[in-house]
Amino acid sequence: MSKDPRVESAIAHWAPRFVSNGVLLADFQEVTQSIARWEDWCQAWCKRAAVHEALGHEALAGGFKLSASEHLSRAAVYYHFAKFVFVHDVAQMRAAHMKAVACKQLALPHMRPPATRVEIPFEGGFLAGFLRLPAGASKPPVMIMVPGLDSAKEELEAYETPFLQRGIATLMVDGPGQGEAEYDLPIRGDYEVPVKAMVDFAMTRSEVDSTRIGLWGVSLGGYYATRAAAFEKRLKACIGLAGPYDFHDTWDQLPELTKEAFRVRSHLATPAEAKAHSASLTLKHGIASQIECPLFLVTGKMDRLIPWQDTQRLADEASGPVELMMVEDGNHIANNRPYRYRYRSADWMAEQLGLPKQ
Description:
Elements: H1 5-20, H2 25-33, H3 41-61, H4 65-83, H5 90-107, E1 115-122, E2 125-132, E3 142-146, H6 157-165, E4 169-173, H7 192-203, E5 213-218, H8 220-231, E6 237-241, H9 247-250, H10 256-265, H11 271-278, E7 295-300, H12 308-317, E8 322-327, H13 342-352
Parallel strand pairs: 3-4, 3-5, 5-6, 6-7, 7-8
Antiparallel strand pairs: 1-2, 2-4
């Protein structure tokens, strides 16, 4: 039986991302091989997530809290990937998403170091996040981490770990159109507005050094982070991973699943409206040149989603110092070569935030 082209597309585009962000290779192979129709994607991944969730509950019941946190964190990643672009069935998607949130919430206090759920005031509601402090640190600098179009805070632990290990606290936040916020707050191009709320929140936390705040974003979050850095001058440094320069310019080459996820998370009715809205996600009109803080930019030369030329253009136009890492054989976000940039970007951010080399 031939596979649904949407399933083929998801496998082709996202296999390295799944594996580098916490999905076991055997699980990826077995689950994806069992799926012929896109309509079965969410259920198949939820079924495998439940295996890891059950192991987590078993470990908790036995008092093995660290093991429980590891099982439950993996379950959260699997539930996340069950829902990540499954927007054609919002009820099923949201049920899987809430399982991801619940599993990760159970894991948070038992992780090493532990993490705390926080709720950042925003436009009469809140943005959900995780605050995690490096072990043994006193008043560490903090780096805000923002997801992309189809990622969420529950997916970011593999990205987060190298920064924690170097003494940087992390504040991972679901912004508008992302994770827990996606149902009430649509995608917006002026991401500097939610980032201002995130920075305001960080300034209130006595556990961290609010004079040393960095920002990190992945994929569409790579656009969000660099866009925010043009306007939010309290940031000391910014990392952007494979973000578009102008989302409208790349629209026609995007996979249909990605376009549809953008439409749904923008709370729009038609593909035409979504394409028009994509033009609001831009660094044109002199915005890129307003970025003055140090930038670390990563792109893969083999990226089929966001062309490497977008990152090169941003590097050329930014006003502050830029370190550009072009991974010659890298796919989107170079997740097929994570070792090329994850440690280096963490070393770079640690230097920018005044930490000693380790």
